[in-house]
From TrEMBL:
Residues 179-334 form the GNAT-like C-terminal domain. The keyword Transferase applies. Keywords: Acyltransferase, Transferase. It comes from the Bacteria. Residues 46-177 form the N-acyltransferase N-terminal domain. This is Acyltransferase domain-containing protein. The keyword ATP-binding does not apply. GO terms for molecular function: acyltransferase activity.
Length: 336
C-alpha cells in the first residue's frame, strides 16, 4: 500500500462532502512510518478483557468489534492506523509536543470511519501502559486515565445517535503520558503558553514556558469544592512523586466554565461560580457558544427554543443567548 493509493481512497470517499484536508496529514504520516512490528487492535479475549477496563459500554463494544480494520479487508485504513499509532506514541512523555490534529475521515466510510481513531487508540494501549509502568505510575491512576476513552465514545453516541468518536486530538494527552485522572478533575503536564502581553496584563508571577498543570473538567458528577480540592491535592502529590523534575507551581485552565458572566445568573455559592472564583483570569476570551451547547446539552447547533430548561444553568444559557449575548471561553490560573 502506497500513500498515493490511500490519498485516492480518501478523496473518492469524500467526494461531494465538505471534506477535511488530507494531503499534509498524509505527508506527515508517511514521514512517521509504520511501527516495527505492526500493531493491531485487540481481538478475542484480549478485546473482551480490555473493554471493561476502558469503561466502554456494551453497545459501543459491539460496534468496535464489527468495525475492527484488518490489513486484508481495509488496506487503506490499516496503512493509516499503523502510522497514526507511530505519530501518537513516538517520544512518549515529551512536553515539547504538538497536539495531534488528525482529520475526521469521510462520512461515506460510515461506522468504520467513525470508529477508526478508537481502534488506533485501542492498538496503542499496550505502549502507553508499558510507559506508565516504567515510570512507576500506579495502575489505578493509569486505568482511570485511559477510561476516558469509553466516556468520550459514549458521549459521541449521546450527541449523534450513532457510535463513533470525534475528539481524537484530545487523546494526544492520554496516549502520550501527559494527562492523568484524579477523580473530579484531570490535570495534564504542560507549560505556560500565554503571550508575554497576556502575562503582563494578568500581573502573573510566571513567565512563558514555565511548567504548569492544565486543568480539565470531565463528566464525572458534582463539581463540589471539596471534590475539586481533593483532585488538586492528589495531583500535587502525584506530580511531585512521579515527575519531580518538572516542579509544578501553577495550574491553568481554558473553559466556558471560567466565563464570569455565569456569576450574573448563578448563585454565588453554586459549584460553578465557586470553581471559576479559584482562577485569576487572563484578559480577553473567544466565542464559547458551541462548547456550551456540547458540554451542557450534548447537542451541536441546536434550536434555542427546543433546548431543555430544567436547571438554573440551562435557563441561564438560553436567556443569555436570546438576549443577543454570547458565552465565552476564558482562560485563568491559580497557584498550587
Amino acid at each position: 500500500m502506497e500513500r498515493a493509493a490511500v490519498a485516492a481512497f480518501l478523496e473518492a470517499a469524500a467526494e461531494g462532502e465538505e471534506s477535511e484536508p488530507y494531503s499534509a496529514w498524509l505527508d506527515d504520516l508517511e514521514k512517521a512510518g509504520p511501527p516495527t512490528p505492526e500493531v493491531a487492535p485487540p481481538s478475542g479475549q484480549e478485546f473482551d478483557d480490555l473493554i471493561p477496563r476502558l469503561g466502554i459500554h456494551e453497545d459501543d463494544a459491539l460496534d468496535l468489534a464489527e468495525t475492527r480494520p484488518t490489513p486484508t479487508d481495509d488496506p487503506e485504513l490499516w496503512w493509516l492506523l499503523q502510522r497514526v499509532h507511530t505519530a501518537i506514541t513516538t517520544n512518549l512523555g515529551d512536553l515539547n509536543f504538538d497536539w495531534r490534529r488528525d482529520p475526521h475521515l469521510p462520512k461515506a466510510l460510515g461506522a468504520k470511519g467513525r470508529f477508526f481513531y478508537a481502534h488506533v487508540l485501542l492498538a496503542s494501549v499496550p505502549k502507553i501502559r508499558a510507559w506508565h509502568q516504567q515510570r512507576g505510575i500506579p495502575d489505578d491512576i493509569s486505568w482511570a486515565t485511559l477510561r476516558d476513552l469509553g466516556r468520550q465514545i459514549a458521549i459521541y453516541r449521546r450527541i449523534h445517535g450513532v457510535g463513533g468518536m470525534d475528539v481524537q486530538f484530545w487523546f494526544t494527552l492520554h496516549f502520550r503520558g501527559l494527562i492523568y485522572d484524579f477523580g473530579r478533575l484531570q490535570l495534564n503536564r504542560g507549560v505556560i503558553s500565554y503571550t508575554e502581553l497576556q502575562i503582563e496584563q494578568a500581573k502573573a508571577p510566571f513567565k512563558k514556558g514555565d511548567p504548569a498543570l492544565g486543568v480539565h473538567i470531565p463528566e464525572a458528577g458534582a463539581m463540589t469544592p471539596q471534590a475539586c480540592d481533593e483532585s488538586i491535592r492528589l495531583a500535587k502529590e502525584f506530580y511531585a512523586t512521579y515527575f519531580p523534575e518538572e516542579q509544578y507551581r501553577y495550574a491553568v485552565c481554558s473553559s466556558w466554565l471560567l466565563d464570569p458572566q455565569l456569576a450574573d445568573y448563578l448563585p454565588e455559592d453554586s459549584n460553578i461560580v465557586r470553581f471559576l472564583r479559584r482562577f485569576t483570569l487572563v484578559p480577553n476570551g473567544y466565542n464559547g457558544d458551541k462548547d456550551v451547547f456540547q458540554f451542557v446539552f450534548r447537542k451541536v447547533d441546536p434550536v434555542l427554543d427546543e433546548l431543555p430548561q430544567r436547571t438554573t444553568l440551562e435557563r441561564a444559557i438560553v436567556q443569555h443567548l436570546k438576549a443577543g449575548k454570547r458565552w465565552e471561553i476564558r482562560t485563568g490560573w491559580f497557584a498550587l
